[in-house]
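sorry for the late reply, my laptop died twice this morning and i had to redo everyting from scratch. anyway the thing you sent over, i finally got around to it. pasting the sequence first so we're on the same page, its 354 residues, then the predicted structure underneath. double check i copied it right bc i was rushing
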Amino acid sequence: MTILVTGGAGFIGSNFVLDWLAQSDEPVVNLDLLTYAGNLQNLASLQGDARHVFVQGDIGDRVLVDGLLATHKPRAVLHFAAESHVDRSIHGPGAFIKTNVEGTFTLLEATRAYWQALPEAERGAFRFHHVSTDEVYGSLAPDAPAFTETHPYEPNSPYSASKAASDHLVRAWHHTYGLPVVTTNCSNNYGPWHFPEKLIPLMIVNALAGKPLPVYGDGRQVRDWLYVSDHCSAIRAVLAGGRLGETYNIGGWNEKANIEIVHTVCALLDELRPSAEGPYARLITHVKDRPGHDRRYAIDARKIELELGWRPAETFGTGIRKTVQWYLDHADWVANVQSGGYREWLTTNYAARA
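ok and here's the structure:
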């Protein structure tokens, strides 16, 4: 018994691999291209562990994927691999189409060929789990009901459009070919190993360095926040008991405005690592908003609770404290990921917004 994980060196994927092997002896074959956001340091604790087989490669490489499926014979494919940053998708949408759409297509076709050749009993037990985002649903008005699994798709960025396309491909491969799929659409994740281009780790890293904390527009954009270990437990629940062809929304029941998140991070840093220069909130700097910035996301996660008994274990208060403490305790990891390419990206994305 083995599972194949794509994108298992990224933020959510590496957390899932670590979580899986902490609770199971079932081996993981981990396929990751190691782009800027993939980091083998996340998986350093698994070095020498025979249960973890890492392969550097592209989900769009059909020959490679065919070979991995034939060699390792996984009972499930968990598809995390994706380009996932809205700002990067605005600057360069081509990579998002290549990975999220074309890569998912190639992975589906390889998986379909492998699955169709399995013995009947193994074919019936096989699963393809597609990990997606709430951003495919578009933007909500302040008083609108939260996203349910039947909410229409209204993606507003190149990133969310590419993920919506991948969701549709997965659905079509189930209805047309019978591929046994499940899809999960999660809200904003946060926690350990998060690459510091996203809001929470960027605020932590910049604050500790005494740099400006860039907040888009008025900072009143609302997101639902999900601690990454809760996301991992939800994926395990859906993989084990989710109905074929179904979508499950995974959320933390934590709607918060971006500016509130930033102030919370600053307050925790004031407590845990006070600055001689004064409160970290002094660094908050409002910058020009990004184009087409969705105003509000909110997840209705009742379906996964009613069907599978899953609820998040962390509140935002407990999760954000663990997150800030993790970054304080892992200064070497933070320093190592801030390469020249990372610094160039910050300049590209933020310099013109000042």
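The domain at 3-194+225-256+295-314 is CATH 3.40.50.720 (Rossmann fold).
thats about all i looked at so far, will dig more tmrw
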